[in-house]
Amino acid sequence: MTNFFSFSFKNRIAFNYIISSSILIALVFVCIHFIVKFSVNQHINAGIQEELNKHLDDVTTDENDTYLIQVDQWRAREHNSIKVNPVFVEFYDNNKQLIDKSPNLNDSNLELFPNTCNNKFVNASLNDVPLRQIQTTIINKGKIVGYVVVAMSLEDFEIVAILTNTLLISFPIILIILFLIARFFAGRSIKPVQTIIETSSKITKDNLTTRIPLPNNKDELFVLSDNINNLLDRIENAIEREKQFTSDASHELRTPLAVMKGTMEVLIRKPRTQEEYQSKINFCIAEVDRLNHMVDQLLLLARFENQKQNLKEENIFLNGLILNVLSRFSKEIKTNEIEIKTQFKDHYYINSDNYSLEIIINNIISNAIKYSSNQSKIQIILQSENNKINCIISDSGIGINDSDLDKIYNSFYRSNTDEHPEIKGTGIGLSIVKRLCDLLNISISIQSKKDIGTTIQLTFKK
Q: What pLDDT digit, counting tens, does each position of 225-265 carry?
């Protein structure tokens, strides 16, 4: 039975329902039993007490400490009254000797109990028939002159016994019926779960397009199915990005390797001059440097793909970080005669990961320098607005086509490569920037116009 309920979710639901229902039904049955038993008991006691009072009225006493029974009146009432439950009556003198009794006793007699039982309801029996009786004394001038005993059959209690047996028999039957009903409705209720199981079993790495049908009722199962579908969407997108990333990385790595191989093959076909050797070797070294840079970028992108738990938050002086990055590009800035204009209205501090934030600023400024023409201008602004800090980096370079703005965060994507073949790059920098901005909860927006320039805005929460 343990295995039966442990493997079937439908049966476990029905079983748990039956457990709670059985407790409730048992409590109701017990209450019904005691209420009926109490009501019958009170009814019998009231009937006996009423009969006792009537028969006490039939007794008169005299001055000789004796009492007389108004037999005619008693007999007349016995014949004229209709009683379903027979009443037995006996009269005793002060010596506990029987004086008179009701005709329905025939040759049988009721038991007269000790005086300690006076005015108390006592269960007894008459010819093995259960009775309940009460006895009381007849008092004259403060002395006991006799006794009256009134008894009534306990046949009404058979109702209690019948009810008890009925409840005991019906209890397991009701539980079995409830279990089957609960199991049926539980099976219908969890039918969407079975659909989820069947659908999810069809989903493999080669089949990620299958989705779970959403139930008609927008209940918890609808939410579960919708969340699973959203999860599958994210998994499918992640795998597609991984495939595309692998394909692009292979292509980007294959091209410089093929170029270097071709250059070296040409170089060894025949003797060359010292200048030719030096030129080709320098070209190959440049390509190797580009490959090294690309590999570093790829490793960096892979490292920060799921690195939120490794971020170290600290207080960062944003002004100083930007100036440190600019100092690294001082040679390129001087060579290209680029004017750097900084506008820091105040000293700005933020809580973030210093290493990751430095990579973000470094890549943005590197792109701004790379895509700016000689004697152009790069402007960097730090300002506070609405409890936020904005870092705006603008250049007057080649810009980006409007149609390419939604693709610039894709790995290995580069805009205007045909128009500017002299500008080398890997197309990974902004992918790293976007990923790190997501990890650090930094908002990033890019505005650009072709041949006018590009503006990137980073928004930090204080």
A: 888 888 888 888 777 767 766 766 676 677 678 878 888 88
User: Nearest CA to 208 among 238, 185, 182, 250?
Assistant: 238
Task: Specify whether the backbone of 412 is left (phi greater than 0), alpha (psi in -120 to 50) or beta.
Answer: left
Residue for token pair 């959203």:
230
Residue 201 in domain = no
Taking the C-alpha atoms of residue 338 and residue 242, their distance in angstroms, rounded to an integer, is 38
CA–CA gap between residue 119 and residue 137 (Å, rounded): 8
E runs forming strands in 33-154: 59-61, 67-69, 87-93, 98-101, 122-126, 129-140, 143-153
Last residue in a domain, options 301, 320, 338: 301
Q: Which SS3 state, helix, strand or coil, does residue 204 take?
A: strand
pTM: 0.47
Same domain, 248 and 397: no
Q: What is the pLDDT of residues 318-336, one digit of tens each?
A: 999 999 988 888 888 888 8
Domain count of the fold of the chain: 3
